[in-house]
Amino acid sequence: MGFEDNIEKGKTSSKPTVASKMTFWEAMKNIERQLHQIEEDREKLFVEYSK
After folding, report:
1. Residue-wise pLDDT tens digits, 15-28
2. What does DSSP assign to residue 1?
3. Which residues contact residue 13 at a Cβ distance below 8 angstroms, ignoring those fewer than 6 apart?
4. Number of compact structural domains in the chain
């Protein structure tokens, strides 16, 4: 049932609006920020364990 609901929603909004594009790019930026944070955390841990 949920799968069919998703298909219906997809039909109604087949063209991405400006708003959804914005949220998409914002999401991409957030993911990028999180990846940088993970990199920094990993480097800190590596330095800690190297001592």
Report:
1. 666 667 778 889 99
2. -
3. 20
4. 1
